[in-house]
Amino acid sequence: MTALRPDLEAIAQMIEPGARVLDVGCGDGALLEYLVRERRVDGRGIELSQQNVNACVARGLSVLQGDADADLAEYPSQVFDFVILSQTIQATRAPSVVLHNLLRIGQHTIVSFPNFGHWRVRLSLLFNGRMPRTEALNYAWQDSPNIHLCTITDFVTLARQCDAQIEKALAVGRSGIPMPMRFEGWGPNLIAEGAIFQMKPARRQS
Fold first, then answer.
1. Domain for residue 13, yes or no?
2. Of 68, 93, 109, 161, which cross-links 102 as Cys (Cβ 3.0–4.6 Å)?
3. What's the CA gap between 41 and 55, in Å, rounded?
């Protein structure tokens, strides 16, 4: 099994051994496989791409084809210890509804995303007048799956609107190595290329 990307490794370290885990938008299953084998979790996955679902099944993982926007509402409340949405919320049609469902389904929710407030993105828009391309947002605008680009500040506001309590926040730098996030001043919204948040419901979701 190949080593995980630094951001996925950071997410894995947030997961308690033996936990019940749902990985939403699990891609080819790299993170979920690591959690099942190394953290001994009871892991399940949802993935939109049939090709990725097939790759997950080939790894021996329990993954179903599904859409975060449409299918999370069918899950019962508080059935998982951890629900993960890695690099996917910006590609959903209704991020607030998706986050509400994640918080309802899991005791803890982990969300990661690229930060559109990074200084390189701002400068690219300012000087080029075109949608920027970075390592974290490496698509031409017409080919991008990202339909709701947000900044770290935007996400913190959304989390509060969804009654989420932020338990841990990590800023992902250009090296890909996550560091503890501080919210003072300009902070991570300007210098972080991405972010990882661990949250729990501030009150029971319904």
1. yes
2. 109
3. 19
- Reported confidence tier of residue 169, pLDDT bands at 50, 70, 90: very high
CATH number of 63's domain: 3.40.50.150
Please report, as a single letter, which amino acid is at residue 100.
H
Please report whether residue 127 resides in a domain. no
Residue 171, domain extent: 6-116+148-201
**Structure confidence at residue 97 as a pLDDT band (50, 70, 90):** very high
3-state per-residue secondary structure call for the chain: CCCCCHHHHHHHHHCCCCCEEEEECCCCCHHHHHHHHHCCCEEEEEECCHHHHHHHHHCCCCEEECCHHHHHHHCCCCCEEEEEEECCHHHCCCHHHHHHHHHHHEEEEEEEEECCCCHHHHHHHHHHCCCCCCCCCCCCCCCCCCCCCCCHHHHHHHHHHCCEEEEEEEEECCCCCEEECCCCCCHHHHHCCEEEEEEEECCCCC
CA-to-CA dists, residue 9 to 30, 59, 129, angstroms? 10, 18, 35
